[in-house]
Amino acid sequence: MWAHLGWQDIKQRYRRSVIGPLWITISMAVTVTALGLLYSQLFGMKLEDHLPYLAVGFIIWGFISNCVNEGSEVFISNEGLIKQLPAPVTIHVLRLLWRQVLFFAHNLAVYFVLLLLFPKPLSLTALLAIPAFALIAINGAWVIIVVGTISTRFRDIPPVTQSIVQLMFFMTPIVWNYDQFRAHENPAIAERARLAELNPFMHFLEIVRQPMLGSPIVWHHWLVVGVFTVVGWAVALVVLRNYRARVSYWV
């Protein structure tokens, strides 16, 4: 049911559109190209290096931010179904997650085009991007459960969540390169760049971006993501056990 509903969401959004879901890819390609041209000049980086870095970062961030932002309203926006359909609330969580996976798959077309334009030496480690994305999706599920439940009870949470996600976009190495600042000749700037390690979004980003760009794998990013996965799902299971029956009353 959740897979069918998620697919219908995309079909409904692009109903009567000439090129349909390709608008997702076109929008991403235009944004990445414009920002890549701008920031490669500002940071003094080669376009063939910065554009793929920026594109992969945007694609992954799009998935993460949509899970958080739309997850905060996942039960509110499905009020009618929750009240009329005798089904577990997790169906709406999986529906949203599946829809974001489909969006992610569409945006990957930008990545493959850039690989053709700017070939990079990739090895078998590139396959690590598959389990890495699976980890992000698993974490996305518990985030939707927790944030969605809290937001259903306290309606002030969604705008707060959106503001936090927007702020974290600028604090996460997406348009700026973490390695470039960490290797800066000014030791003060290099030391401050290490503060980015305190940003959990960075670790989720890097476990996928590094294999996709053929960069050396830094395993401590995987460790941090693993810890968040265990702790996050522990919290989500507690929330489901105690509050899932109340969601239908809160909406």
UniProtKB/TrEMBL annotation:
GO terms for molecular function: ABC-type transporter activity. Pfam families: ABC2_membrane (PF01061). InterPro entries: ABC2_TM. It is found in: Cell membrane. It comes from the Bacteria. Keywords: Cell membrane, Membrane, Transmembrane, Transmembrane helix, Transport. The chain crosses the membrane at residues 21-39, 51-68, 101-118, 124-148, 160-178, 219-240. The keyword Cell membrane applies. It is a multi-pass membrane protein. GO terms for biological process: lipopolysaccharide transport. Its main location: membrane. Residues 5-212 form the ABC-2 type transporter transmembrane domain. GO terms for cellular component: plasma membrane. Belongs to the ABC-2 integral membrane protein family. This is ABC transporter permease. It comes from Saccharopolyspora hirsuta. The lineage of its organism: Bacteria, Bacillati, Actinomycetota, Actinomycetes, Pseudonocardiales.
